[in-house]
Amino acid sequence: MYCEILEKIREYDSITIFRHQRPDGDAMFSALALHRFLSDNFPQKKIKVAGKDVYNIISRNDRISDHFIINSLAIILDTSILNRIDDERASLASYMIKIDHHPSDDNYGDINQVEVRASACAEILARMFLSRAFKDLILSPETCRYLYCGLISDTINFRTTNVTAETMSIASKLIAKGDLDVSKLVEYVIDTDLDSFRKSTKIRTMTQIRDKFAYVILKESDLKKMNMSLMEAKNNIDELGRIKEINIWALAIENEKKYDCSVRSKRGYVINSICKEYGGGGHINAAAVKKLDRKSLDQFFERFIALSKKKPVKQN
Ligand SMILES: [Mn+2]
């Protein structure tokens, strides 16, 4: 598959890189890594990064004409479904390559490089760049740095259940090849500023516990009081993790009278199937739903309360 992707890259004079709406670190750093990699290796090609939304640490949203997209190869990163791409013009492109690690039935690409065992989209890109098919191409320290940032962003510095020996092996190669300062990059990507720290502290005090399920419901009025955006609030889901007694945790945020809810779980607690029933989706231990009314949210939570009391199932 990696050979086919490289063939397509060679074939096109212009390439547009896409990512999902409200990009997280994996989506943004993967886009930057791919942009850097392609620019280093194919300076004669025109490479653009599409997107409207921004990411808090670093962003790149190029101005791109319809004409450019129509004639370009589209590479879509970290985006499981077509209508989550942060520029609906992606489907205008003459050829689409999807590179993603989310389980999904939406094979919208002409090539679909979907590796659900990968901890991050950045892990897939790194594996591809390090693969035999790509061995004659330049992998610059900047590309390594972006990939490593994507990796630690999605895995919260290698804490999530989808981190594997392969993840660490790839991380190790990136550190060596890019001569990366690991502690500096953790500070850059993971550490919080004082303002966010204070807000997270407030959110933690709002935690409610039912059996082995922990959750916070943030109303629009709470966000207003804390002067917090929806996106900023969402990042706090991990604040509810790291509790030994808790197996599943969730953060619901009111948005236009409905609730968007992120859910996380420990290994052995399968939550994405429940999210799917409520119109959402995601990974086994990290999933989300959107636009639930209050009644559905309560029912949704009841499912996790029940599940949280059960013994974990085997999960590789
Ligand atoms: Mn990701």
Describe, in plain words, how this protein is organized in 3D.
The protein has helices at residues 2-11, 25-41, 66-71, 121-130, 141-154, 165-178, 182-189, 194-205, 220-226, 230-234, 272-277, 294-308, and strands at residues 14-18, 46-49, 73-77, 95-100, 111-114, 208-210, 213-218, 248-255, 258-265, 281-282, 286-292. The strands form 2 sheets. Strands 6-7-8-9-11-10 form a 6-stranded mixed sheet. Helices cover 39% and strands 18% of the residues. The radius of gyration is 20 Å and the shape is globular. With 316 residues, it is an alpha/beta fold. It folds into 2 domains: 2-189, Alpha-Beta Complex (inorganic pyrophosphatase (n-terminal core)), CATH 3.90.1640.10; 195-308, Diaminopimelate Epimerase, Chain A, domain 1, CATH 3.10.310.30. Residues 26, 78, 101, 120-121, 154 line the site of manganese (II) ion.
Topology of this protein?
Layout: H1 2-11, E1 14-18, H2 25-41, E2 46-49, H3 66-71, E3 73-77, E4 95-100, E5 111-114, H4 121-130, H5 141-154, H6 165-178, H7 182-189, H8 194-205, E6 208-210, E7 213-218, H9 220-226, H10 230-234, E8 248-255, E9 258-265, H11 272-277, E10 281-282, E11 286-292, H12 294-308
Parallel strand pairs: 1-2, 1-3, 3-4, 4-5, 7-8
Antiparallel strand pairs: 6-7, 8-9, 9-11, 10-11
The site of manganese (II) ion (MN) has 6 residues, from loops.
The main sheet comes to:
6 strands, mixed
User: Over all CA atoms, what is the radius of gyration?
Assistant: 20 Å
The CATH first-level class of the largest domain comes to: Alpha Beta
Please state the second-level CATH architecture of the largest domain: Alpha-Beta Complex
- Structural class, from helix and strand content? alpha/beta
> What percent of residues are in strands?
15-25%
CATH homologous superfamily descriptor of the largest domain: inorganic pyrophosphatase (n-terminal core)
Strand element count? 11
